[in-house]
Write a structure and sequence with these properties.
This protein has 229 residues and is an alpha/beta fold. 32% of the residues lie in helices and 24% in strands. It has 8 helices and 10 strands. The protein has helices spanning 43-50, 73-79, 94-99, 107-116, 143-157, 173-187, 199-204, 222-228, and strands at 4-11, 20-27, 32-36, 58-63, 66-67, 80-83, 161-165, 191-195, 207-212, 215-220. The strands form 2 sheets. The protein has a 6-stranded mixed beta sheet with strand order 6-7-8-3-9-10. It is globular, with a radius of gyration of 19 Å. The two termini are 34 Å apart. It binds adenosine-5'-diphosphate (ADP) (2 copies). One adenosine-5'-diphosphate (ADP) is lined by residues 77-78, 81-82, 84, 100-101, 153, 157.
Length: 229
Amino acid sequence: SGAIRFEDVRFSYDPEREILKGISFEVPPGKSVAIVGPSGAGKSTISRLLFRFYDVTSGRITIDGQDIAAVRQDSLRAAIGIVPQDTVLFNDTIAYNIRYGRVDAPEDEVRQAAERAQIGPFIAALPEGYETMVGERGLKLSGGEKQRVAIARTLLKAPPILVLDEATSALDTHTEQEIQDALDLVSRNRTTLTIAHRLSTIVAADEIIVLKAGQIVERGSHGELLERG
Ligand code: ADP
Ligand code: ADP
């Protein structure tokens, strides 16, 4: 389960300017689709529509054949996991941050998720900038480590659908590789829609969609796109 379909979706934030100009694509269950294109093309808008932060102007978006306009917001949020590019941590332990949204998750499940995301040793720590009443100070986590917290949270939540918005910021090669490995872990066998910036993601995607000014101008596997030049 977890098939995503966009059917001739049009969208405008304001009536003067159409942002998505009739786009159709699908992500079959368990497959991964990467959306690439220049800044301003409408890539992030696609993920915002999938979450129903906004409703489509026309056309429709379905998950497992059901129009998301008819799906309750909480079911939609339960079905979709997101690993944002900038993970903001709450003022509480890393374990709490991993539990977020699943307060009732058993301790050992939280630990397991942390270990798989390779932040096991940090689970009792507080994030940087925070201090307990007894003067204990938070730990400085790198960007990659913070993203691993988000990944652990997603592993714990285990949603059928994953939306990844990759960082555009320059990361060093080591951090990039670390993040990529963790993302591979979380997206395996899960329907994945990625707003892609990393070459490794694009190469590994089952389909790449090239978006320009709100229209799909090219689509295919990495190999197919290379052949066509
Ligand atoms: P991308 O992710 O490809 O860089 P976006 O989907 O973020 O593109 O944005 C597509 C276009 O929509 C841009 O021109 C952007 O300025 C515009 N846009 C984004 N968010 C809003 C908003 N909340 N209100 C009005 N215009 C917006
Ligand atoms: P749940 O439904 O389990 O409460 P969500 O899928 O709503 O969880 O959120 C999972 C994670 O994604 C949380 O860290 C949340 O803060 C973050 N998140 C949710 N919506 C957005 C968004 N629009 N942009 C960035 N992060 C988000």
